Amino acid sequence: MPLSSAIAASASALDAQRARMEVAVSNMANAESTRGADGQPYRRRDIVLRSNPVEQSFDAAMGRAAAVGVKVATVVEDTAPFKQRYEPSHPDADAQGYVQVPNVDVPEEMVDMVAAARAYQANLSAIGLIRDTVAKALELGR
């Protein structure tokens, strides 16, 4: 596998981790949103990733296996039930005084953000290592 394929695979992972962070931030920002455009509380969202072969025409011509990257397949809504909180003075409270709040767990979202940030950093490090390897190889060729 040429180094350009490895860089492309790591670059695809950077995009996927950025998307994970964006979704986690959106979930945290809406953790208290009790009414959306549809009149329902916000539903937690999650990213579904799928493998994505990195196409390199040179690899195909040589019969080599391509590097495998990742891409966002879809963003899905969590179907877990909404949480309920007793708050009779809230405008969205039902007759018993309970308010349906989003199915977002802020500490879980923080863990997801940290994991995505670490995976992002790991892929940046991989790209840096590949770049350094290429630079060293070019130095040896002089």
Descriptive report:
The mean pLDDT is 89. The longest helix is centred in the C-terminal third of the chain and has 35 residues. Helix 1 packs antiparallel against helix 3. The protein has one domain. 48% of the residues lie in helices and 19% in strands. It starts with a helix and ends with a helix. The strands form 2 sheets. Strands 1-2 form a two-stranded antiparallel sheet. A two-stranded antiparallel ribbon has the order 3-4. The chain is α+β, with helices and mostly antiparallel strands.
Brief account:
With 142 residues, this protein is α+β, with helices and mostly antiparallel strands. It contains three helices and four strands; from the N terminus they run H-E-H-E-E-E-H. It has helices spanning 3-29, 57-62, 106-140; strands spanning 45-53, 68-77, 83-86, 98-101.
What keywords describe this structure?
142 residues, alpha+beta, two-stranded antiparallel sheet, 3 helices, 4 strands
Q: Topology of this structure?
A:
Blueprint: H1 3-29, E1 45-53, H2 57-62, E2 68-77, E3 83-86, E4 98-101, H3 106-140
Antiparallel strand pairs: 1-2, 3-4
